[in-house]
Protein: ROK family transcriptional regulator
Amino acid sequence: MNDRAALDLLVAHGPLTRTRIGELTGLSKPTASQLLARLEAAGLVRTTGRVSGRPGPNAALYEIHPQAAHVAALAVGHTGISAQVADITGAVVGSCRVEADAVAEDVRGRTAQLVAEAVDGALAEAGLGHDDLHCAVIGTPGAIDRATGELRYAPHLPGWHSRTLLADLVEVLGAPVVIENDVNLAAIAEQYEGAAQDYDDYVLTWLDRGVGAAIVLGGTLLRGATGGAGEIGYMPLPGAPLARGGSAAWAGDDAGGGFQSQVSATAVRALAGGAPLGEALADEGVLAAVAERLATGIAAVVAVVDPELVVLSGSVAQAGGEALRARVHAELSGLALPRPLLRISDIDGDPILTGALRTALTQARDAVFDTSRFDTAK
Structure:
């Protein structure tokens, strides 16, 4: 427990002296010294210079050894796969983008190779190989059904529906693999470093080519029996065509009806005659219509979940910005009794990749920082 506490402090604060680690953990100087010697021998920490400018000998600074483990994070979309490789400290050391129309049209057997291509490119940029990879987390539309192992709610990625997909990915990457819903990962990113920091009950509403939500209650993602919690794109709304036929009727855009047909990027652009999102939402009429539609859908979720916070993310939210947020907030006041805070995502970069990286780092640290696996008697 002391080892893990010290390692977590080094992750959170960066390099620290033995004295400072002792102060933060409450350990005596001899115990802190023994702890650091043990972690250094295990290859988990290393010295990184000394602190000068104070009385007495210069104190050594200790940091997490970045080579202790590496992880991969991937985001899968209809046009390609983005991959990042990071060391155990969270520093991104390699990245790769596989632009592939075949991602959407893929046949079984090719999917794993596309993922491997993206990861291999990121590893190569970092000067690493598969043996250096501890685990990988992949964000995709839809969700893995725990009962069948099959990806559901993402018919526009047909090559990802094989029941052997996870095993195939593990084989080509040579490391454990987790497949997670992309919107859930965006919500994790907000929890770690975005608008949802310090909130345990919140909803992230994803407004992009696809529409979905991630629901976090008590700090834990709500997944549902088949992984379909938060698939609000299918939700019926007044004035919207019904998404009959479920996922079989969905084309990954706004074709299936429901909430998605009202507030997706394609739907918003259609309201403005095909104009780009920024131009579309600069039009007061389009902005008002989108805000009304969006507030109606969010009100249905808020009435059931009663979150402290709703975060708007995705290209529609970014294009609409504060003007859209303010309009939606005003509309919500007359539609739902709960009054959650409403914020626009402020994550830099791709929130799906950020969430995948955070998830992979958590998994890796739980394993690598477990010093009970070492024989400390030697």
User: Anything to note?
Assistant: The chain has 13 helices and 15 strands. Residues 247-255 have pLDDT under 50 and may be disordered. Residues 68-184+352-368 form a domain with the Nucleotidyltransferase; domain 5 fold (CATH 3.30.420.40).
